[in-house]
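Tutorial handout. Part one gives the primary structure; part two gives the three-dimensional structure as tokens.
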Amino acid sequence: MQRPAITALLAGALLLAATGCSSPGGQPPVDGTPTPTPSTAAREASPSPTASLSAPPAKGSARVVRTVAEGLESPWGLAALPDGDLLVSSRDAGTITRVDTETGELTVLGEVPGVDPGGEGGLLGIALSPSYGSDRLVYAYFTTASDNRIARMIYDERQPAGRQLGAPDTVLRGIPKGVVHNGGRIAFGPDGMLYAGTGETGDTGLAQDKESLGGKILRMTPDGQPLHGNPEEDSVVYSYGHRNVQGLAWDADKRLWASEFGQSTWDELNLIEPGRNYGWPEAEGRESGGGDFVEPAAQWPVAEASPSGIAVAVGSVWMAGLRGERLWRIPLAGGKVSADPQAFLEGEYGRLRTVLAAGGNRLWLVTSETDTRGTPEPGDDRILLVEVS
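Part two.
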């Protein structure tokens, strides 16, 4: 499925990004919003996304095997059930839906109480408890009228469709909310702990404020409590200096990687270390910080990425691009980016929101055309099964 308008839109957006354009009045631009222009020359002349790397790209591929489901409304978070089916959250409807991955049948489990959608907020990331087989708990990150928070609910398949989610048990509240930059990705790590990527809501100072939960990566117990091994034993803050984190994934050696929206110059992929400062708003991309800031492992002009979800498969990070409308492959070796990233599926399925490892060399990929910023076509939004190498 080709989308012929994509090239011109991306070209213009990159031209504006290259000249350091920002939103009127000095406000941070809304992540993932393209700015059209008829010229393609700027994009063709743009710098390599990882210009400091000299190694040629390792040969890779990404092929859509089939469309698993379609007709989804503003899909955001994705979780894989033990039997192979999927759960997907709707940002704007505030519902969680079960997807039969063989037939594509959609069954709404229920609505998450208290979700207050608006702007980039709503029902965002979801994750299954590490003990899901016994406790049947589904975790959700969502925006309320007063904050962003994380809650867990029992999924009871014995109940009628639409009433299968139990009452939410809030494990963490008080994450700042805004019209933009709400973060929202949650995932359980190899250590069994719950991690969350948050945003600074457009209030850039929150990213450097260690007392705030905004502009951070958080690490907590499944009950939402701080734990030993965090930089501060009484805090869930794991790393800081982030603008808007929407992608979390671990490699085979249990290293944590995170994707992050830039403002007008560079989007980032970061290797996360506890207690480290990732620079925002003092630095965007590979800028000198006097040794105080961690530089990104890879970076992209914002028109080529606007990254949301990431996953690790076959030795690479795979990164979904919203404004960039492509799937990026970032090869890894020894905890470093080992070759220039490669782009796949460029402009074929529109905005890409979430990518999740499906086992072996396969990924689940979620499009994001119905979130008010895309150009929906019949069938949008979709979940795709992608085979990669």
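Part three, for discussion. The chain has three helices and 25 strands. The CA atoms of residues 135 and 154 lie 7 Å apart.
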